[in-house]
Amino acid sequence: MSNVVRPAFILSRAGWRETTVLLAVAGLVPFLVHLLPWSGHRPLGVYLLPVFWTTFVAVYFRGPFIGLLVGLVTPVINLLITGLPVSTSLMAMSLEIAFFVIVAAQWPRFRWAAPLAWVAAKGLAVSVQYFIPAFMETEYPWQHLARSMQNGGAGLAVLAAINILLVVFYPQADGWEKEI
Is residue 176 part of a domain? Predict the structure, then answer.
């Protein structure tokens, strides 16, 4: 047996049943958020960021690959059921989710990993959108970033609460200490 230390959370495998349950819950959470009474100018999901809640939970328990699967499938399920997010923003949202998973997977056991990963992912996505005209944002990238951060304040608070609760109540070793 070698003394190589590997990140166990990256290697953790979810069976098809676990993955199906994660996908079902991930599809259900945004759907339930969209059922809440709301009369704002934008959909409530813009403010509460429910797709990122379930994506982070998947990253926390199952690693980046399952987290990415959950994160990318959830908006599609939600679009089919509720019509949200608007199909034109699906590509930009997928980019944000991919960046979010990459950043969150680096240190998921850190108490502020999820909200910081969202901020980093949003910044990275806005930067990419600036250089790729296919995204066709209607405002300047940095205005979009500032507006998104302002709108997403409540969602960041929920994301932080989920992150802290997971770290406190499920303080698994982060995998870097385990030997395989």
Answer: no
Q: What is the pLDDT of residues 119-146, one digit of tens each?
A: 999 999 888 887 876 666 567 777 888 8
Q: Which residue has the tokens 């870097």?
A: 176
Q: Does some domain include residue 92?
A: yes
Parent domain of 102: 8-169
CATH assignment of the domain containing 157: 1.10.1760
CB atoms within 10 A of CB 66: 21
Looking up tokens 């997403």, which residue turns up?
152
Q: Of 101, 105, 113, give the one whose Cα is nearest residue 68.
A: 101
Inside any domain, residue 180: no
pTM: 0.82
Q: Are 129 and 92 in contact (CB under 8 A)?
A: yes
DSSP 15-26: -HHHHHHHHHHH
Q: How many domains does the chain have?
A: 1
pLDDT in tens, 157-167: 999 999 999 99
